[in-house]
Specification:
It is a single chain. It is built from 10 helices and 4 strands. With 282 residues, the protein is of the alpha/beta class. A 4-stranded parallel beta sheet has the order 2-1-3-4, with helices on both faces. α2 links the parallel β1 and β2. α3 crosses α4. It is globular, with a radius of gyration of 20 Å.
Length: 282
């Protein structure tokens, strides 16, 4: 079935209801609005939305956009950064997840390209499962890129090409400014503390904020439209290649298989937290 769009806020209610008669997959890109060098503040939101769209196309899912305001982290020193607490983000995202489940979206996939997003998404996913018995998924796009796509990257410019390609895919390429003043090779001002930052996963080890706005981050020189277009072309190809390696049809099939497995676990161990929710649905 060909959909007019896969982005849920752009659909008619009747289109969503028709989709739900045959499938139940929704991909939720969780973003941020934060200091980002020579790229727009919502860069990591747009990257996640572009990935979500390609992932949805690959597994016949829908995409819930419009979630840019969550915990930013060390970039709070930038006055353009919108900082929401981790706890507030968990509660808000959990409310969305429960609404989506009531609407019929049982296979929910939360994704983000923002490093600290795991502190919001992972607790929500686990608490949601204990409450409802429904296994929803969080996919860390940075982790996916490091684990399965290192060979695709020619340089750090390829990393930033993903950002430019994402803006192009979302029809916003002109939002990427033509500028050369944000490219540098200086270490981050907080580099002396990398030893203790590395004692846990990414931003979850200890609290800090960047002292220098260039810490997040050096961005490629984009002097003209030709360079911007070339980066966009490279970025679109990288996003498509990475999504292909994710094998989204397999991922959503495994989510369904895991649900059946969890039901059997609850029968064997009726004291697991979600057992009551599973038995009430049976």
């Amino acid at each position: 079935m060909n959909l007019r769009t896969r982005i849920l806020p752009r659909m008619l209610n009747s289109e969503v209801e028709e989709y739900l008669t045959r499938n139940d997959i929704i991909i939720v890109p969780v973003g941020t609005v934060e200091l980002h060098g020579g790229l727009p503040l919502d860069s990591e939101t747009v990257i996640s939305e572009a990935f979500a769209l390609k992932m949805a196309e690959a597994c016949d899912g829908l995409v819930l956009t419009g979630l840019p305001y969550f915990y930013a982290g060390a970039t709070a020193s930038g006055r353009g950064t919108v900082q929401v607490s981790i706890r507030q983000g968990i509660d808000y995202l959990g409310a969305i997840a429960r609404s989506l489940l009531r609407q019929g979206f049982k296979r929910q996939i939360y994704i983000s390209f923002h490093g600290p997003a795991h502190m919001t998404c992972s607790p929500m996913v686990r608490d949601f499962f204990d409450e409802t018995g429904v296994p929803i998924l969080y996919m860390d796009l940075t982790m996916q890129m490091m684990q399965s796509a290192r060979d695709l990257f020619k340089s750090m410019d390829s990393f930033h090409a993903i950002t430019v390609g994402a803006y192009d895919m979302m029809g916003r390429l002109s939002d990427v400014p033509l500028t050369t003043e944000y490219h540098h090779n200086d270490p981050q001002s907080c580099a002396p503390f990398n030893d203790i930052f590395a004692l846990a996963y990414q931003s979850a080890s200890i609290g800090y904020c960047f002292e220098d706005h260039k810490d997040h981050m050096s961005t490629p020189a984009i002097p003209d439209e030709a360079v911007r277009a070339a980066l966009a072309d490279e970025g679109r190809e990288l996003i498509q290649a990475l999504v292909s390696r994710m094998d989204m049809p397999h991922v959503v099939d495994q989510m369904r298989n895991l649900e059946a497995y969890n039901i059997e676990v609850a029968k064997k161990f009726p004291w697991v937290p979600y057992a009551g929710a599973v038995s009430s649905d049976s």
